Structure formats: structure tokens, C-alpha cells
Amino acid sequence: MNKKIQNRKEYDAVKERVDALIAEATAKGMLEPEADNEYTQEIAQLSELMAIYEDEELDILPLREKSPLIRCIEDYFYSRNLHQKDGARILGINESVFSQVMCGKRKISMSLAKRLHSRLGIDAKLILENA
Predict the structure, then answer these.
(1) Mind spelling out the 3-state secondary structure of the chain?
(2) N or C of the chain: less Cβ packing under 10 Å?
């Protein structure tokens, strides 16, 4: 099926089909991460058509990707079973400031960049390229 979705009614029908395929494939145990079968292939094809329609016709904002630096910080705290408040304490900043940095609402200052390197051992190049 390489037909382009023409309108919202077709989009909704394709979405309904994808939901049904996912439910059926899940029930049969055929939706594993590395699965390559008729279900996953059709879901992928239909999802691509839906994405094209969404990009061209629907006013949907794209998801923001986290920067490699933010993912590195998250990985550091996750691997040590630490919470956001612990991260703020370790870095010597206010918890709300740390939260804003982590969700991309606040830029990383030079002093925070230095602490990320000295206290967490994050590579300076990664910090410079992504701060």
C-alpha cells in the first residue's frame, strides 16, 4: 500500500487499522522489538503514510529530542538510582533550575558546565558541543 492518505477520514481509517494490527499482533506475541513479520511490516507502512499526512496536513508539533548531553546526565543519575533533587544537590544548584535545564527550558551556564565535568565526569567536548 503506497497510496497517499488524502483526507482526515482516510487518516482515521488507517489509524484504526494500525490500532487493530497492534492489538492482534500483541495478542499473538508477534510484536517483539526485533520482530519482522506481516504485522510489523504493515504497521510500518501504514505508520509512514500517517506520518506523511500528519506532517503535511495536521498541525502537530514534532517531539523534541533530548540533546546527547541531557541524555548523558540522565544516564548518570539513573545508573546510580538518584533522583532529580539529588542531581541538583550534587551540582549545587536549585532543584527548579536543574529541572528547567533537564527539560530544555534553561540553557546550561558556564559554571554548571564546569560542575558537570568536575562532579559527574562528563566529557568536556560533549558539554561544549551540546550546552
Answers:
(1) CCCCCCCHHHHHHHHHHHHHHHHHHHHCCCCCCCCCCHHHHHHHHHHHHHHHHHHHHCCCCCCCCCCHHHHHHHHHHHHCCCCHHHHHHHHCCCHHHHHHHHCCCCCCCHHHHHHHHHHHCCCHHHHHHHC
(2) N
